[in-house]
Write a structure and sequence with these properties.
The complex is a heterodimer. Chain A is of the alpha/beta class. Helices cover 27% and strands 18% of the residues of chain A. In chain A, α2 (24-40) packs across α3 (61-70). In chain B, the strands form three sheets. In chain B, strands 1-9-8-5-4-2-3 form a seven-stranded mixed β-sheet. In chain B, strands 7-6-10 form a three-stranded antiparallel β-sheet. The chains are: A alpha/beta, B alpha/beta. Chain A: One of its GO terms (molecular function) is lyase activity.
Chain lengths: 213, 311
């Protein structure tokens, strides 16, 4: 990944590089607190104005904000094919975060997914080990519309009694995978859902019940 | 980008980054916090930094607070329940200087409360975050010194040794003699050290509305308990978990069912018991509650002069 040649299209796009946070310290802090609250209270929607404009498609403002907040040279990141195909999006992430971009999900600490409906199985990402369950991936799903799709019942840490959650789009087998992900607790991946102005999360600790079909 | 510059620093002296830590360090700590929340009770290793205070003075808690703190937060710092002891005053001053945030002694007004070894008497709400300073995060450490082994024990959920320890307490003393850092089981999985808070505070950890973050600087571990998480103090069916009880109320504010500190008044056996939570005690006195020792001359000294106003 370090030896990647600078290709001409990437060099040309440097002129069009979009700006990061206007106030990197406080915008990142604000974004982190929303992500933290989302993770601590699974299924709740946290509202946040990312304040990023003119981003290279298919990168969304909220997805980019989470990336700027959590990624750096310590976090190998996997981009879904649509993102990886966009030299502008790649150079934006490379310039602003410095995160190494990896080709295979299993090497990733984070995954940015711009086309969630085409997401590969959660099991392809690092799940952590019994000794180090923290050495697992965090997935950031973009373009989510909350309140759409199957109405799920959530239980577990961070949830008083039961919470309701629905979001779309996700792959057809996604919720089965989330259930399987929870079943192997403490191993597993954590998922952050990003919409236009809202963030939600499902950590591996959340038990999910689907409506009876 | 504008950074708040403390008025006490001349402009040419420059200033720290907001809340002292550099941004990469904050990101690293933030990632560890998210993992900690996702795996309640599991100790996440993190690259703890040297802080401008010695290990043992809350470097873990300070780093966690610095990573989550925002310009609009209101910070409260307590040390054994008190807002005005050395550690609390120093850390409060540290964030006033490096972050320019508002600070308070009022539990109600705080959005972040950093604590050393106590949980406020007042129930916390869902907008608050409680940050613990932790000396030894590993509950099994004094039973098994090897990290490789304790890590395996957590992985295998093998906590028999901890129950043996509690059993030995009963065999020797007739009751479970552990009174602080009392081990808990988080969400039916990980056994966790709630830091050296008195076991009196353990029931507050269970199903708390506020998010709890634990930082151990020297031991380089962060762990967390999300809100509304089942936290059970370890015990036996025939020796159920019990908290300390006090036969007298607080000498200053007459509060019952709170954790009390013993204060020696003279060398003739004089003593009094007062609330360990100084804010709780002051608020009660402001509302007119007076304890049996409130009129004692020693009480005037203890209560930081607030008594004088009442007289």
């Amino acid at each position: 990944m370090n030896t990647e040649a600078i290709n001409p299209s990437a060099a040309n796009s440097a002129a069009r590089l979009a700006a990061g946070f206007a106030d990197p310290v406080h915008d990142a802090q604000n974004c982190f607190r929303k992500v933290m609250q989302a993770m601590a209270r699974p299924g709740t929607l946290q509202t946040f104005e990312p304040g990023l404009t003119d981003l290279p498609a298919p990168l969304t403002a909220m997805g980019a904000a989470v990336a700027l907040t959590l990624l750096d040279y310590d976090t190998p990141v996997w981009l879904d094919p649509a993102l990886a195909k966009s030299p502008d999006a790649v150079s934006f992430l490379r310039f602003h975060t410095g995160a190494p971009i990896v080709d295979v999900p299993v090497e990733a600490a984070f995954a940015l997914v711009s086309e969630p409906e085409r997401l590969t199985g959660l099991g392809n990402f690092p799940q952590g080990t019994p000794d180090y369950p923290d050495q697992s991936a965090t997935l950031v799903l973009m373009n989510q519309t909350f309140g759409k799709g199957a109405s799920l019942k959530l239980k577990g840490p961070g949830i008083k009694d039961v919470a309701r959650f629905s979001t779309s789009p996700v792959p057809t087998t996604f919720w089965d995978q989330v259930q399987a992900n929870n079943a192997q607790f403490p191993r597993g991946v954590d998922v952050i859902f990003t919409g236009e102005a809202q963030i939600a999360a499902l950590p591996r600790s959340t038990q999910l019940t689907r409506p009876e079909a | 980008m504008t950074l708040p510059v403390s008025k006490s620093i001349a402009p040419d002296e420059g200033s720290y980054n907001f809340a002292y830590l550099d941004e990469q360090t904050k990101r690293m700590i933030r990632r560890a916090i998210l993992k900690g929340i996702a795996i309640p009770g599991y100790q996440v290793p993190f690259a703890s930094r040297e802080m401008p205070m010695p290990y043992g003075w809350g470097t873990g808690g300070v780093q966690v607070t610095a990573a989550i703190l925002g310009a609009d937060d209101t910070l409260k710092v307590i040390d054994q329940g008190s807002d005005d002891t050395t550690n609390a005053v120093a850390i409060r001053g540290f964030f006033e200087k490096t972050a320019g945030v508002a600070t308070t002694t009022s539990t109600e007004d705080a959005s972040i409360i950093q604590t050393r070894h106590r949980i406020p008497e007042m129930a916390l709400n869902s907008n608050q975050i409680l940050v613990f300073q932790v000396p030894i995060p590993e509950p099994l450490r004094f039973l098994e010194p090897r990290e490789t082994e304790t890590r395996k024990m957590h992985a295998l959920e093998e906590y028999g040794l901890m129950h043996v320890k509690l059993y030995e307490d009963i065999a020797k003393n007739g009751h479970i003699a552990t009174t602080y850092a009392y081990p808990v089981e988080v969400n039916g999985r990980y056994v966790m050290d709630p830091s050296p808070t008195p076991k009196f505070d353990n029931p507050k950890i269970d199903n708390m509305e506020a998010l709890q973050l634990y930082g151990a600087g020297r031991e380089k571990r962060i762990y967390a308990i999300p809100p509304y998480t089942k936290v059970k103090s370890l015990d036996f069916d025939d020796y159920p978990f019990e908290v300390q009880s006090f036969d007298k109320p607080c000498g200053l504010c007459n509060a019952e069912g709170v954790y009390l500190d013993e204060v020696i008044l003279d060398d003739k056996g004089g003593r009094m018991f007062v609330c360990s939570d100084s804010d709780h005690c002051e608020e009660r006195r402001a509302n007119g509650h007076l304890g049996p020792m409130a009129a004692d001359p020693a009480a005037t000294l203890l209560s930081g002069g607030t008594q004088e106003k009442g007289q």
